[in-house]
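Appendix C: a fully annotated inverse folding record. The material below is reproduced so that readers can follow the format used throughout the book. The structure is listed first as tokens, followed by the designed sequence.
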């Protein structure tokens, strides 16, 4: 029963997140924020019935929450659920939470742990580390690489949220005055 419930919640979250990014591209910020909030809620609910160490749910939750403008609550939840960077996936969620909370030392440690994952994890780790260090040039290079990766994917409009990582990072970079404003047809106007 829990496995089925987890699957349903996760599918709903992914669908809502993709809808939100399409709304962002269409310039409908209100619809996008509503869908992102709902996606974040579904990811969070799926955490309660997820298999052990299913940190991907927390990654989706905090990304959607940052984009919806509700990062603080999500960051607190992630910090309470994950003690140490650990696996690349848990490190991803923890690194974003640490950036939200201004804990640049933890964000940098999490970025290092993320590098044990895929190339996509490494690109995100570069951006997280650059934000934690306040390095605008390194951050711009990293976020452009993330956008290029998403632009190259054939499935970016069929369920995979559109450049969600780059959009989320830009939201975290803005208050630090490090936003790179990457240009791509898959990114809404900044």
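Designed amino acids, in order:
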């Amino acid at each position: 029963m829990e496995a089925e419930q987890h699957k349903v919640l996760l599918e709903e979250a992914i669908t809502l997140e993709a809808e939100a990014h399409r709304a962002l591209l269409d310039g409908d910020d209100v619809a996008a924020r509503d869908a992102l909030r709902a996606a974040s809620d579904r990811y969070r609910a799926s955490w309660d019935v997820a298999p052990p160490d299913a940190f991907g749910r927390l990654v989706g939750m905090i990304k959607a929450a940052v984009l919806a403008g509700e990062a603080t609550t999500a960051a607190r939840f992630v910090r309470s659920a994950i003690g140490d960077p650990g696996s690349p996936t848990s490190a991803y969620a923890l690194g974003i939470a640490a950036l939200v909370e201004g804990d640049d030392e933890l964000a940098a440690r999490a970025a290092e742990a993320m590098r044990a994952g895929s190339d996509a994890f490494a690109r995100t780790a570069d951006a997280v580390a650059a934000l934690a260090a306040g390095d605008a040039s390194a951050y711009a290079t990293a976020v452009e690489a993330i956008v290029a990766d998403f632009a190259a994917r054939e499935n970016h409009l069929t369920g995979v949220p559109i450049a969600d990582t780059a959009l989320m990072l830009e939201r975290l970079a803005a208050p630090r005055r490090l936003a790179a404003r990457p240009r791509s047809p898959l990114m809404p106007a900044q």
